[in-house]
Amino acid sequence: MAGQTLEDILATMNPEILMNMKTAVETGRWANGGKLTPEQVELCLQAIIAYEQQHLPEHERTGYIDRSGLGTKQPTDPPPAGEPQPLNIHGGDGDRQ
Predict the structure, then answer these.
(1) For 70, which DSSP code?
(2) Which of 12, 9, 44, 6 lies closest to 25, judged by CA?
(3) Residue 78's pLDDT is what?
(4) Cross-strand bridge partners of residue 35
(5) I need a surface site. Which of 4, 44, 56, 83 has the fewest CB within 10 A?
(6) Residue 41 CB neighbour total at 10 angstroms
(7) Which residues partner with 29 through β-bridges?
């Protein structure tokens, strides 16, 4: 990767290289065990994002958040017994002793 530009990397990328870069960024190491430098991590992340932007639909890209249902769901039933309950935090009411 040394001396390569983002354009150079994108010109040679394919799905296998994409997965190898993702693994390298996740683990901080190349497949041969060598440690990624901070510059390599940054360049890999840029390449991953740019490649996915060009080749993958939005919902398959790294970091995608499905926001289609946000704000539209209303809880209708309480969660079943034994399931975690949401935490409600209220403050500033002066009820503390």
Answers:
(1) T
(2) 44
(3) 65
(4) 29
(5) 83
(6) 15
(7) 35
Task: Give the DSSP H/E element, type plus range, for residue 62.
Answer: none
Nearest Cα to Cα of residue 51 among 61, 59, 38: 61
pLDDT band at 68 (very low <50, low <70, confident <90, very high): confident
Question: In 3-state terms, what secondary structure has residue 37?
Answer: coil
The amino acid present at 70, given as its one-letter code, is L
Please compute, for residue 23, the number of CA atoms within 13 A of its CA located in the half-sphere on the CB side: 11
The residue with tokens 């503390």 is: 96
* Angle, alpha carbons 54-19-11 (nearest 5°): 45
Inter-CA distances, 73 with 15, 68, 76, Å: 36, 11, 9
How many distinct helices (H) and strands (E) make up the chain? 3, 0
Cα–Cα dist 29/26, whole Å: 8
